[in-house]
Each structure stands twice: as structure tokens, then as C-alpha cells.
């Protein structure tokens, strides 16, 4: 028997030789187990975020469901009838509405937002800092581009928050710095001339309430004193609609207990109340800035996440910049949302200023996924 060592052959009962394999040495088994265990540990560390998100339905519970307020609107329907459809009554005088945002670098969306809201807003309150939530020095983007917003100059209340730059090699707690800016916003709102009974919109710059929503807040009595706004969620542009999961924007009837927050404050939410366009930037450079600047900058786990060509490819595919799984509480929803966001060719029911200036904002509309680098 070629290739078989004599010592591996043992006589059987009938006198013939049979082949038996030797057991591997114990040290060899330990080496194999060590290699397998090491690969497993490296895999868990490298993909811990994905593993955690995939098994989220097992370890996390969804928040209590909202009480959805149906949103009625159609052209040529009177405000009296619209208020009545919501179970509210028509006011004799419109409420004043104040809009408060903490600003980073979303100049294009801010232009669209303020043009959309301008006919209904008494004051635009805007706070920007000279550092990011993560402690990186930041240009004052609004201050240096203020001429772009001259159309609303008499309504703007602007404040520069003295940020805090992290020492080299260290990081600031982004949520603590964000909290301090929201406290500063409370003071600026009071200085803006707001009165009890006025409406205050609390939202990020990329969370844009619709004009239909503002009309209800302005003209209807019986509106809940605090009401979340359900916004249609988009990623990168209005070509990639995700869902209606955006809820953090709120409308408040201003009173002594009103404080500027970006978290859940009530169970009531007005359905289909506007748009949330996340990471909707004109330039790749702006994507990179936000990825390293906002409160979830820890999601940048590899340097190549900030590669220009990678970011451009993911934008046009509608895929996740951080290579993350969807944040869902059921396996059904998680699996349904895995992979790229399906494209939409519809540009219906979007902010009017965006459509009127489609050439200027082509990158936000279907077919406009290519971005300038700088």
C-alpha cells in the first residue's frame, strides 16, 4: 500500500492489515482551538455594531406607540373646514410662530427651509457654534453666508455659541455639548420676543415642516399644547424616501414650562407633517464634515469610510455610509429595510421653493445623485 507507513497498519481478525488514522497530538488541537477562538473574537470586535443591531429585536423593546393625529388637507378647502376636520375650531386671529434650530453646515436645506416657512414665521432663531458636537473647530457657516438669507433679515435672531475644542488626541462627549447648545437656545428664544400662547417649532435644520402644517398651527384652536411632527424620511436627496419614522420635530404652544429639546415629549404626533432630508448635501466634503462632526461620529469606524469615491458610490446606490444595519425592533422590519434604499422618480409634494429652483438644487431631485467633491 503506497504512501502508508507500516506503523499505521494493524492486522485484523482474518489476518489482513487495516488502516487506522492516528489521533492528532493534544498540542495541535489546542493550536486549532486557539486560532478559531481568535478569529471569532476578532470578528465579534470588528462587527460588534452589526451583530448588536441584528439582534436588537431580542435585547431592546420598542418605545410606546404614538397617538397619530390624521392630517387633512386639499387645495381650495377653507381653514375653517380644515380645522373642523381635525376636531379643532377656527381662531379669529392667527398665532405667531417662532422657528428655532441649532445649525451646523446645512446651508442649502436652510435656504429651502426658510423660504418654505417664511410666510408664516415671526422670528427665525438660529444658534451656531465655532466647534462641532465632537469638539472639532468649525467655521461659522451661517455667519459667513448671511447675505444668502437677506430675504428674511428682519426676522433672524442669530447667536454664536462659544464651543469647546477637544485637546489633541481626546474627544468631547458630543451629547453633553449638544445639550449645552440646546440650553443656550432656550435663552435666545426668550430674547426673540416670544409670548405665552405663540407657537414654537423645535427641529433640526433638515427637518422641514410643511406649509399645510404651519397653517393648522397658526389658525386652529384646540391644537395639543405639545405635538410631535411626523416627517417623511429621506436619505441623501428626495430621490431616496425611507419611511415615516422621523418624529423628533415638535410644535409647542409656548408656556412657562417650555424647554428646547429634541427628544420624545408627548404621545401625540401629527401625521405627514413635512420632510426630513438627512445627509442631503451638495458636496462630498460636506458629507465628510458631518460624518466626523455630529453626535454619532463614532460610527466612522474605519478611515476608508471618508474616501471620496466610496461616499459618491454609496450616495448613488442609496446605501448606508456607515455600513450599518437598520435600527429596527422586529426582524421583519430589519430584513425588509436591509440593503439599498429603493429609488423614487417622484418629485410631487416637496417644498415649493425646491421645485421652483430645481436647476439650483438638482442634486436633491431624482437623477441628481452625482456630487461635487469640494
Question: Please, could you describe this protein's structure?
Answer:
There is one protein chain. This protein has 374 residues and is an alpha/beta fold. It has helices at 26-46, 48-54, 56-59, 79-85, 107-117, 141-144, 174-191, 211-219, 284-293, 308-317, 331-337, 352-356, and strands at 9-11, 17-19, 67-69, 89-90, 97-103, 123-129, 156-161, 199-202, 207-209, 220-221, 226-235, 241-246, 250-253, 268-278. Helices cover 30% and strands 19% of the residues. The strands form three sheets. Strands 3, 5, 6, 7, 8, 9, 11, 12, 13 and 14 form a ten-stranded mixed beta sheet that branches. Strands 1-2 form a two-stranded antiparallel ribbon. Strands 4-10 form a two-stranded antiparallel ribbon. β11 (226-235) and β12 form a beta hairpin.
The SSE order reads: EEHHHEHEEHEHEHEEHEEEEEHHHH
Instruction: Summarize the main sheet.
Output: 10 strands, mixed
Strand content: 15-25%
Rounded to the nearest angstrom, the distance between the terminal CA atoms is 72 Å
User: Number of helical runs?
Assistant: 12
Q: Can you tell me the residue ranges where pLDDT is under 50 for at least 5 consecutive residues? A: 1-10
Decide which structural class fits the backbone: alpha/beta
Report mean pLDDT, rounded to a whole number.
89
Rough outline: globular
- The Cα radius of gyration reads 28 Å
Helix content: 25-40%
Number of E strands: 14
Task: Compose a concise summary of this entry.
This protein has 374 residues and is α/β, with parallel strands linked by helices. It has helices spanning 26-46, 48-54, 56-59, 79-85, 107-117, 141-144, 174-191, 211-219, 284-293, 308-317, 331-337, 352-356, and strands at residues 9-11, 17-19, 67-69, 89-90, 97-103, 123-129, 156-161, 199-202, 207-209, 220-221, 226-235, 241-246, 250-253, 268-278.
